[in-house]
Amino acid sequence: MDMNEKKVTEKVENAEQVEETKLPDTREGKLVKALIEKAPYVEGNVRRERRVEFNVPAERIHDFLELASETFEMLMQISIVDWLKEGQFEIVYQLWSVSESVHAFVRTRIPREDAKLPTVMDIWPVAETYEREAHEFFGIVFEGNPRLGPFILEPREYEKHPLRKDFNLIPYVKAIYGDDFDRYDESKTYYVI
Amino acid sequence: MNLLMVMLFAPLIAGFLAWLLDFKVIREVIGIIGASIPIGVLAYYYSTVTSESITYSLTVGGFTLGFHLTMLTWYFAVIASIVGIAMAFGMASTSKSSYDWLFALISFTGVLGVFLSSDFVGFFLFWELMTFGSFMMVLKRNRHESLKYFVLSIIGAYSMLVAIGIIYAKTGALDFNTVQKALRLDAMVGSISRGETALIYTLFLITFGVKAGAVPLHVWAPGAYSENDQSYTAFFSGALSKAGVYGFVLLYILMGAKLYTALGVFNNHLVFAYILAWIGAITVVVASFLAVLQEDIRKLFAYSSVGQVGYILLGLGIGTGLGFAGALFHVLSHAIFKSLFWLVTAAIILRTGKTRFEDLGGLAEKMPITFTMGLIAVLSLAGIPPMAGFASKWLLYEAAISAHMPLVAGAIFLGSGLAFAYVVRFLYAVWFGQRPSDLDDVKEAPLPLLIGMVILAIPNLVFGIAPGLVTGYFNRLFGDTIVGGNYFRLVTPTGTYNALLVTVILIFGLSIAGLIYIYGAKTRKIPVINTYQSGNPVTEEYNLSMRKNFYRPLAEALGFWLKYSWDRFYERLANLTEDFADWLREGFYNGNAQSYSWYLTIVLLILALWGVL
Amino acid sequence: MNVQYASLLIAIPLITAFFVPLMKGLGEKAIKTYVLIITAIQAGIATWVFEEVYTTGKPIIVMAGGWRPPVGIDLYIGPFAALFVLIVALVSFLMAVFNFRAVKVEPIDKYAMLFLLLMLGATGMIATGDIFNLFVFMEITAITAYALTAYNKTGEAAEASLKYMVLGGIGSSFFLIGVALIYGATGTLNMAQIAQLAGNINPTVAQVALALVIFGLAVEAELFPLNAWAPDAYQAAPHPVTAMFSAFVVKAGIYALARILYLMSAVGTWKNILHLLIAMATLTVIVAEFSALRQRNVKRMIAYSSVSQVGLIGLAFALGTQAGVDAGVFQMINHAIIKVLLFLGVGYVAVQLGGAEIENFRGLGKRMPLTALGVTVGSMSAVGIPLFNIFWSKLRIILATVDAGYAWAAALVLGASVVEAVYYFRLVHAIWFTGEGERLRESAPLVAIMLLLIAIIVAIGIYPNYAWSLSQKAGNDIFNVAQYIKNVPLMGVGA
Amino acid sequence: MGENEGFINYELQEFKLFEPLFKWARKKSLWIVAFCTGCGGIEIPPLATARYDFERFGIMPNPAPRMADLFLITGYVTPKTLKRIIVTYEMMQDPKYVLAHGSCPINGGVYWDSYNVVKQLDKYIPVDVAIAGCMPRPEAVMDGIMEIMRKIESGEANGWKRYRENYEYYRKNQDKLFGEGWREKEAKRWLAWI
Amino acid sequence: MFAWKLVLEAIGMLIYATFIGFIFMGIERKAMARIQRRIGPPIYQPIIDTLKLLGKKESVSHGFIYDFGPVFALGASITALLFIPMGNFQLFSNNADLIVVAYLLEVPMLGIMLGAMSSGNPYSGLGVQRGLLTMVAMQLPYGLAIIALVQHWGTFKLSQLVALQQLQGWSITVPALALAFIVFDIVFQALLGLEPFDIITAPAEISMGPMVEYGGKQAAILFTQHAIQLFAETAFFAVLFLGGASNLLDLFLKQLLVLFIAIFVASIYPRFTIDQAAKFFWKWPTIIGIVAVLLTM
Predict the structure, then answer these.
(1) How many whole angstroms separate alpha carbon E105 and alpha carbon E73?
(2) Residues in A touching D110 (Cβ below 8 Å)
(3) Domains of chain A from N-terminus onward
(4) Read out DSSP for C151-176?
């Protein structure tokens, strides 16, 4: 158990070192530099060849995305990370630039309680489905998205926004499936499937 | 002999009385009596007609109007009166105004007069009367369609008048017998030139083409048939289009020899008949394709009616005895099954008030009797063996192929395929599938309409199982046996068709299938919403049947041809004439006296020059 | 009642016309009843004359002042003249009834006088047997027609009557020159004698004389280029006068044209004139029909239709065959009845609803059903629908035309009548199936007249034998010039 | 759907004379409803290929439930899919058998603790044969099919009879999971999309 | 005297035809399997399938017309069968001719359509539309092929046709009729609903097309109908172009020949879409048909 913890911490340290060094003058570096000039409020770095990252404050996310959409034509995915301890959601917009074939991760942080974000449907209409899914599983409200509401899940799961970390799964499943949910044993900490 | 006159004018007088005594029930009773007198008289005359023909003449305004009831005219008159009675019963429940009764019965007299008259003046008089009656029925509902119909029919009628005038000028006689003798004599002598015969033929072709609805002149049919009280359309398309066909038959009788000598022969087909056959073939194909792509019930049956009359023209065009038998038989079968279709449509529109396919659906449970009548009509039109439709189509196939007209026979095949397609589409869109919510309180059709339908359904079955009855009549009509065999069996030089045996074996086959059906597990009735929608549960509001543009793929396949339409062509022509009329008025009556006096001087100049030249 | 009383037909309207100013003081209603009585008397005499001629079979010859022609002027009332004098009288009588309601403009006595003189002129033109006398009566008709057209005192009426006067004047002056030439060549004015001597006049003089006479009468008879005045005159004139115009004034012109045409049939270029007349008549029909197609004013539309039907009559007369002439006369009778009915109906609607625009006619079926029925029956028979009277005469004309070898003319005329069917049935549709309105009270006498006319139309439509026999006798009278000459007792001047 | 009552009080047809023949025929010609639920759907096509070829046993995939009689549940069953399975199962005509693939239909398998996977399929529709293995190999599936055939031969494969006799039990379980009148609600929910 | 011999012959022939029809369906599936190097079901598999369907304990129906459809289709197929001369059994073939049989072979289509329509299922609606369009598309070439044949032999009577072909050699020996043979073979593919034209019951796309709602005994009736139809059409093909047969074995071999042509074509070609099929039918087969017809004018 402790072995993998050690590995995790090493990775975290060397990630910071890369932070201080100046942006490498590769194609991705030039790209990030160009974007940062246009949007000073953003810190961006080149993670590796054809992979770029940006951290954007929540209130400027929409302007930055408009800016980025010139080079990064495609919105691949909107994924959400639920940092329960910091009480924040981290929303990751994964963009892909067809022209330079570079993958960009744009990260923002918003508070967990009544999380709100402006929709990006006006830039990429495809965002509608990703936002609806995010809304269904995490309860983030995207203003401007016409079709928020129950999407795939059964209505009763929809109210619970199941993928939030504070959703206690086991009692809910026991409530639904009752006696045939028989393999859970509080005493064990891990389970043999 | 004035029984003939009683038969002829009974509908007219009944119509007039119905118009005068405009009370709810009396009007219908008078109408039905008036419409049933002809069939009575004709039945009475059946025995005498087969031996010798009955004639009666009347002098009106210097002309002698002769009427003759020969076997041919008896046949056409009987068809018209059967359809007439069905119309009367239909109108008893669908039409609420005496206006309809008056003009429907006027057109009924017109049709009977056309069939019975034995001279050109009477023929022209009743032809105009028939057109006028049917026109007024359409005028009440839609001005544009009615004017389109009237202009085309009047052009037809007047071209006939000019042709009659030419014949009168050449032969000096107006009644059919003398004209026939004179023209047969003239065929040898050849005093009427080739050009003039061609002119007379084209004029008659236009006249009867318009009334029968041949392709270039069929434009009025969809509008006139649908903008009308549907039970009258049963008569309109069942009997009136037969007047056009009777005209072509008349053409054969009167000018057959002359046309043969004048226009000659093209690889052993009579030229004038060959033209007629090709017109018929094109009508069949074009009208059937258009019928398949229609979205409105009435339009579909209108184009289908034009197509079916195309078959009859084709049969006449073949020119051999068999072709004639096939065509005349199809006249009968088309009259009965098409009028049955129109009565069914009348019932649907009366009960649901809707005419487009997308608003209808699932009426089979609500109107079972109308559905069975519709099914009989479907079987007959599609040409399923035990029905009359098949017998006449069979004769047409025999005639077309044995007369070595292959491409024309190909047109029949394609036409019958298309007929099958649009008839099944009608069944699917109207009777089956989920019922739209606003059609839930639909009741069965009223009793008189049902009687009308039954009157038309019985002959479909009777002549289907025993086509020999009709072909036997034709043999007596033409003198020699064209179609051999007894009541139930048709024998032609190239093929046989035993209708009774086919029906018996069909029943035998059905009984075997029924046995297998009974042997299996007892069936449990489930509603229409319990269908396999890949697992999705289905409720009332679902509309799972494709009622709207059912044949979109066919429309895409025919995209190239559908760009052109005869309708737009005629609209542009009409506007052209109206603009020309305006230009003429501005040009001539421009209102200042100087130009008028200039006209005077011009006339003086002409007179002066004329005198000197 | 010996035969000479027939001259009363001319005398009565003449004398009574000049008594009218004396009665000016008695008020409008009295004058109108006075006109009514006069026309009634005229109709009575006309029926007596009609009985006389058709029972004895011999024409009535009245010699003015007992002198035998060619010195004296004679009235020749043959079968045609008897028939048409009766029609003139009856139509005038009906229009006199219509006057009560239709004519409101002030100087009613002048109107009455002109009304009677118009009737006189027409009767005279038909009954006379002398060319110059024909010219005199033509002038009387023409002048009263100019005055009556302008009677409504509107700008449009004045302009119409001016145009009518200009053209009419030119026409009648050329007619006078023609008559003078004929008189110079033959030395006589009597029609019968002219017919005798027509053969041996030197050809060019005869030809020019005939051309000028025909031209003069053609203006009155509304043939193609010369009828430009007709539609405006018809529309502008008061309603009863329009009916009289189309019913008998034009007919008198056409009759005169036909009479002289057949009298001079011995002239060399007769055939060419016939061809020209046929061409002009066909063009009349076509141009009139086409210009009626997009008319907003119903009265003007029916005026055009009347001009075209008169053209049809002209065509029938110009064929030069016995069948053609009979058909032409039959058409004249039918056309008179229909046009009276139509103009009566349209006039009454114009009076009642103010103006003859087509908008007033929308929903007429609900507002004035009987008038609507009258107009509908009139228009349907004008189109030539079988159960009405024009069908038989149009059929006769077409058969005669094609028989005489002019198939192209027949085709064009029929094409034009298709156009006629279109605009008449647009009117019928507008009347019965569009618009709405509540039922108005219709005046009893006019409705009675309309129903009477409808009855006559349908009667002739269903049983045309009697009317056809009348027109055959009348047609024979015009066509059979030899019989005409024999009937007139001549003084034997010249060969 | 209210009309299923007819489904219950409908007495079945007993063919006395030809029963053995029909039993043989039912064994030799099993038609599979082409309804692949979870991750096992990809296991069925190899059976139809040249190597395993279940067609030689007369087995034919048939998309229409009315004609089919073998219902393969090939993987985890989510409540949404279960609704479709129940509707399709009730449409199938009577001697019908269910073959459950893999461990998920048995006890929820890997998704034992997921809210979205049905833990025990047998509570909702009767399962005749269950094949163990987190997606059994084609040989195992073939063996399962052989097992179904043997059961039909011996007459034990009467899942359909069990479903019909204690229909209330199954109905109660279904309504407990989905809530009362779930068919109308489900239909209305998807009506907006059509 | 009631022709007992004829009736018995007919019933015997009917049983023989049904059995051989099922065998043909079995051969069809077996041959397709062997081509794909699979073992494939036993030849009598369709019989087992039909028995299983007949043996279903429960049966469901959407109303009277839903049941009347398959019964009418089977009845029409049986009627069509009994009018085709089979080898030495003339059955009723001198009472009806080519046109009657051609029409009777198309009537089952209406029966199936009736049943499919009344079930109110979207897939069956699509199946009906495609079935009709295929039929409309193939009607012209089908007609032209028949016309060419009849014009050459000058008669419609099937028995006479067979006699003539026995004397003067099979139809395909005549060049013009060879063209007609090709056209008829393409149309035959659509008549049977085999691969390139199985648009009607496209299994993957619209789940068995019209048959979607059929189960239990109705499906059994439809299977027997398909068997009889297969037998009747192959026999019709053999009678028209391969000179009919003197005895049943000869007929069986010819039917097999025709069937195998169809199977080989079916196992190769992918499926047409419906308007491609319409365009295809109105292009090549029609042109060849017209040429054949003009040659035999």
Answers:
(1) 10
(2) 193
(3) 3-158 (3.30.460.80)
(4) GG--HHHHHHHHHHHHHHHHHHHHHH
* Residues C424, C417: Cα–Cα separation, whole Å: 10
Query: Average pLDDT for residues E235-264, to the nearest whole number?
Result: 89
E108 — contact with chain B (CB < 8 Å)? Answer: no
> What is residue A135's three-state secondary structure?
helix
Q: Alpha-carbon distance C316 to C403, whole Å?
A: 12
Please give the residue that has the higher pLDDT: either C495 or C146.
Answer: C146
Determine the pLDDT at residue A175.
83
For residue B522, give the nearest of D13, D66, D84 by CB distance: D13
Q: Where are the beta strands (DSSP E) in chain A?
A: 43-48, 51-55, 74-83, 88-97, 102-111, 116-118, 141-143
Dihedral of the alpha carbons of C118, C122, C123, C124, in degrees to the nearest 10: 100
Instruction: Produce one character per residue of C446-470: b if its CB has 16 or more CB atoms within 10 Å, e if not.
Output: bbebbeebbebbeebbeebeebbeb
Confidence grade of residue A10 (pLDDT, cut at 50, 70, 90): low
Whether the CB-CB separation of E48 and E223 falls below 8 Å is answered with no
Residue B58 touches chain C, beta carbons under 8 Å:
no
Q: What is the pTM of this model?
A: 0.89
Cis peptide before C70 (omega within 30 of 0): yes
Give phi and psi for A21, each to the nearest 5.
-65, 155
Phi-psi label, residue D135: left if phi above 0, alpha if psi -120 to 50, beta otherwise: left
Portion of chain A with pLDDT greater than 70, in percent: 82
The residue of chain D nearest to residue B536, with distances taken between CA atoms, is D84
Report the alpha-carbon distance of residue B378 to residue B368 in Å, rounded. Answer: 15
Euclidean distance between CA atoms B364 and B366, whole angstroms: 6
Closest CA to A94 of A80, A84, A82, A110: A80
* Cα-based angle C39, C42, C44 (whole degrees, multiple of 5): 110
Residue showing tokens 């039945």: B43
Specify which residues B491 forms β-bridges with: B484, B496
ipTM score here?
Answer: 0.85
Calculate the CA E249 to chain-centre distance.
20
- Ordered mean pLDDT values, 10 residues apiece, chain B (613 residues): 85 91 88 91 86 85 87 92 93 88 93 92 92 91 90 92 91 88 84 87 93 89 90 91 92 86 82 90 93 92 93 90 91 93 93 89 88 92 88 90 86 91 91 86 90 92 90 87 84 86 91 88 81 81 82 86 86 91 85 82 81 55
CB E81 within 8 A of CB E108: no
Q: What local confidence, expressed as pLDDT, does residue A11 receive? A: 58
Of chain C residues 35-94, which have a CB less than 8 A from chain B? Answer: none
What top-level class would CATH report for the domain D18-192? alpha beta
Asked if the Cβ–Cβ distance from D55 to E29 is below 8 Å, we say yes
